[in-house]
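User: Quick one: structure for sequence A, then sequence B.

Assistant: Sequence A:
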Amino acid sequence: MAQIECGRGHLYDPEKYPTCPYCKNNQQITVAAAGRTAPIRVTDTSRTAPLSGTPVTAAQKTAPLTPQPAPAAPGGAIPVTADSKTMPPRGYAPQAAIPVTAPQKTMPPRGYAPAAPAPAEAPEPTAPPKFHGPSVLDAGKTVGMMQEQMGFDPVVGWLACVEGPSRGKSYTIRGGINSIGRGDRMDITITGDRTISMENHARISYSDRNNRFNLLPGDGRNIVYLNGEEVFSATPLQAYDLIDFGETKLLFVPLCGERFTWKQEAEQTEHERV
């Protein structure tokens, strides 16, 4: 028969002794089954009855009833034995961390977008010639005879808008043929009047050889009027003639004429030098 342990750690045979013979009958033992009998009453309140067959020594009076928590992993990491973690496969070894400062291993943060390169500085625009604006050579136009001879493109007259969307504006007439229209490519650009064609609605010419102005019809759909009369061919212009384009009416004001020409001015200047 296996021996049992009393509440004070004494071992005895329950078939021979109903109580612990060493405790002077201070403990009552009931034998439930051989080899599995446990004490049912402890008279000494300072002692805890053992839960297994291991005797309780003086240095170990109370058996722990609650499991102790596992030691925390270093660095605040979650141990792999936690319920929320998956055990790594056998033979797995974590790789050493690569510093993000390494030039070949730098990883941009999520959502990072590289800054757009600074736009190249636009070249400074070249100042136009002082005489009247952009050079006609740059615009792809043929150089006029007066400009070729004099070295600049002189003004020979003006058109003043006296009625229409551009009322109050003036337009410069130069030597040779001046094309009139709404487009930017025209020599005289009149905006705001849709009855004027984009290109070559009409033309005004000045001949320095004959010192004479003429109004010529262009390729526009609408008819050009001079002092109320239709213009279908070259018609001489006189000072203060009224040119009618429909909504827009222009007053002709010449500079060159009987009292002044650029040719006479150039000859007089040359004579004074001599």
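Sequence B:
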Amino acid sequence: MVRLRLDLGYDGTDFSGWARQPGRRTVQGEIEQALGRILRLAEPPALTVAGRTDAGVHARGQVAHVDLPVAALAELDRNRRTTRPAQPRAGVGGAAGDRPGGGLDGAPEGVPAEGLPPDVDERLATLVRRLGGVLEPDVRVHRVCVAPDGFDARFSALFRRYAYRVSDAPGGGDPLRRREVVWHNRPLEPDAMNAAAARLLGEHDFAAFCKKRDGATTIRELQRLRWVRDDGGPLVATVVADAFCHSMVRALVGALLAVGDGRRPVEWPAQVLGRAVRDSGVHVAPAHGLCLEEVGYPPEAELAARAAATRRVRTASAGGDAPFEDE
């Protein structure tokens, strides 16, 4: 078997979220079906993702992994010979020289990973191109590479970075950005929003801002939450944490919008946090303003240890295979 890392993005407007659901169009379902079709697999392979997103939420920097039989890459060789030869390049197909260590799977330069064909990077570049021809335009796999030893898209991650975009323009937001920018019909004061956000940073129980799920922990480390105005236009919140529980980012945004337009005092979101129960005054912000921008990972030598540590924390606090992060 070989583990592949996929870097991808999608417009979440017409998807029922990331996770596969019977009878619904989802990002996971579309990509798994495309992989199964291209590689001629008996059953679609199962993807593991860094951050499961809700319906309507977008992603620019999503990461997933998939485990495949090495023999499945032979199908890419046959496909490649029917088209122009693919040239490996940075960021597409994961050329060996683009990864630390120079060789495949992090091996030293000139030493191929065991069992993989020597032209695996070229074959994966072919896979990226084939996925571009099979998938609809609202989802794109930008890069596929052999994952380093110990890599787990979900559990190896150090942080997830989201952006939330909102316009408070008096006459409404830019119609060309209506699928990614929420319009708020009151003027917003970013200084007040940032003052309130600063009181939420650190490790806390964010139960007041999460949809409760049986067995799932709501303890998170919120590393960054800051608003800036984008060149005099929309306000953009950058939100970074080790992981997020269900609806956490949009609930935090909803609370801060109430501060920004003067309906609530600066102290209110922190007071809600301290009570650790859902507050009817916290309105979850609309999904389409949210985008997963980046997933961060440690150096290759630390990937396996990070994954093991994350699993231990999840198991100890959640008591089983409950969702650890979800937005």
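The first helix runs from residue 27 to 39. The helical segments are 27-39, 73-81, 120-134, 190-198, 248-260, 268-275, 303-318.

User: Thanks, that's what I needed.
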